[in-house]
Structures are given as structure tokens and as C-alpha cells.
């Protein structure tokens, strides 16, 4: 089985698999030591034309471009739709929302909208939970499978306890037994004085053994006190987005461990 580090492409928003977060405002972040790369940077209309010259789907590059686009553009599109929309179909909507912000966003928008048509595109964007991964699955830019399988094989934390301000490192290994298209790793931390989340997207990984690492800073701030006590770290490997409740997005495997914030003497 191959070894590879998980590809971090985006921090996830609220992670739905952790029930304790129903009443907790998530303010902190669990981060990775791998940089986030925005696929829209340096993109040109010519490059887009080559990438999207055939039908969408089947390409990690197309999927990544779509997700980065949705992360940047969804709110602008929703605002235009909420204000009554515009005439002119896909081209009119995309131009009204994005042309003055970025020509590339405008072009990507028109390409994705045209696949499903303006009515379906607006319907998807108007959903109560317009998750970027789900949206890209629905517009055929990201492949998915409803029969993915995974297993977390190891999970550890170092150190196991420390004062507020300690940086904790979490190491994970997991097997992707069968996998198609887009997936994710989601993490949440909760305890008496803080709540944090984070994660990564898995861009078309092949079946095999993977490893990754996350860091958590417990330096107190205006949101998290990191008060002394027991904390729980949860991690999940998911089909689609761990933070999404739509079809084709679900938790495949999950584990948790405890660590402790100790009082200063």
C-alpha cells in the first residue's frame, strides 16, 4: 500500500459528525502543516478552455477548480439571486455577480452553470446548505461514489497533556479500501473552554494507506480560553464533505482520543 500525506486544500466549516457541537460556537481552527493552494491563481481563459473542452467530471483538476470557485463566489451569486436575479440566463447571472470582481470567476461560473442550466443552477445555490463540495458534485465537476470504504488504523497525540498555550500535534493513518472522486478528512476538538475544527479534502485519491498530521494551538484568545480539563479530538474520513448533510456525503470511519489541558502551578 502506498504512503502519502493528505492533500490539504481547504479548511472545512462546521463539521457535522460531532454531536457536541450542536450547542457550541466553533471559533478555533485545527490546522495542517501543508499549505493550501488555490487552483484559480494563475488560471487563464485559455487554460480553462483546454480543461473543460469535454464534458465535466473525471478530473481532479476540474473538481478542485470548481470547489475553489464555489468557496469564493457562492455568496455573491446568492446575493444576486436573492435580489430577484437577472435576465440573460447563465451569462447574465454570472456577469452580474462576478464580472467586476474577477474575469476568471465569471468564466468558470458560466461554464458550470451551462452544464445544468440556469434554473437548476439557481435552485442549487438557493439551498439552505450550499456546500461547495456538494454543489460541484451536482454540476458534474466532481465525481463521487456511494460505495466508498475506509478505515482509520492509528491515531495519536503529542504531548498528551500541557498548559494553555501548548501546541498539540495529532498524527493519523488510514486506509482507503475503495474510493472514487472526492472525499475529506474532518476534525473537531471540544472541551470545557474551547471548540475548534478543521480538515482537508481528498482529491481523487487511489486506494491505499495514507497518513496526515494536524496541529492545534491552545493559546487563549477572545474566543477560546482553553481552560484546564479534559478535551476530545475527533477525526473522520468521509465520502464527499464531512461537514455536508446532502446525498453522496457521509462519514465512512471515525475515531477519537482525549488530551488534557493542565493548570499552571
UniProtKB/TrEMBL annotation:
InterPro entries membership: SaposinB_dom (IPR008139)
Keyword field: Disulfide bond, Signal
Signal peptide (UniProt feature, chain positions): 1-18
Residue runs in coiled coils: none
Residue ranges occupied by any Saposin B-type domain in the UniProt entry: 59-146
Name of the protein in question: Saposin B-type domain-containing protein
Lineage, highest ranks first: Eukaryota, Sar, Stramenopiles, Ochrophyta, Chrysophyceae
Amino acid at each position: 500500500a502506498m504512503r502519502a500525506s493528505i492533500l490539504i486544500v481547504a479548511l472545512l466549516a462546521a463539521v457535522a459528525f460531532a454531536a457536541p457541537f450542536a450547542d457550541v460556537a466553533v471559533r478555533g481552527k485545527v490546522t495542517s502543516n501543508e499549505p493550501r493552494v488555490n487552483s484559480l491563481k494563475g488560471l487563464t481563459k485559455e487554460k480553462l478552455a483546454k480543461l473543460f473542452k469535454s464534458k465535466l467530471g473525471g478530473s481532479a483538476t476540474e473538481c478542485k477548480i470548481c470547489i475553489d470557485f464555489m468557496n469564493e463566489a457562492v455568496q455573491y451569486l446568492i446575493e444576486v439571486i436573492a435580489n430577484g436575479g437577472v435576465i440573460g440566463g447563465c451569462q447574465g447571472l454570472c456577469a452580474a455577480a462576478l464580472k467586476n470582481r474577477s474575469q476568471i470567476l465569471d468564466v468558470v461560473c458560466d461554464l458550470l452553470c451551462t452544464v445544468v442550466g440556469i434554473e437548476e443552477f439557481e435552485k442549487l445555490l438557493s439551498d439552505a446548505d450550499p456546500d461547495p463540495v456538494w454543489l460541484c458534485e451536482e454540476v458534474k465537476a466532481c465525481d463521487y461514489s456511494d460505495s466508498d470504504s475506509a478505515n482509520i488504523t492509528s491515531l495519536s497525540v503529542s504531548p498528551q497533556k500541557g498548559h494553555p498555550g501548548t501546541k498539540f500535534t495529532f498524527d493519523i493513518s488510514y486506509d482507503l479500501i475503495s474510493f472514487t472522486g472526492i472525499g475529506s478528512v474532518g476534525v473537531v476538538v471540544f472541551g470545557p473552554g474551547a471548540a475548534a475544527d478543521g480538515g482537508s479534502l481528498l482529491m481523487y485519491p487511489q486506494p491505499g494507506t495514507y497518513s496526515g498530521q494536524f496541529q492545534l494551538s491552545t493559546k487563549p484568545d477572545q474566543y477560546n480560553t482553553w481552560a484546564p480539563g479534559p478535551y476530545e479530538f475527533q477525526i473522520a474520513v468521509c465520502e464527499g464533505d464531512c461537514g455536508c448533510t446532502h446525498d453522496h456525503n457521509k462519514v465512512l470511519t471515525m475515531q477519537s482520543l482525549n488530551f488534557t489541558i493542565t493548570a499552571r502551578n
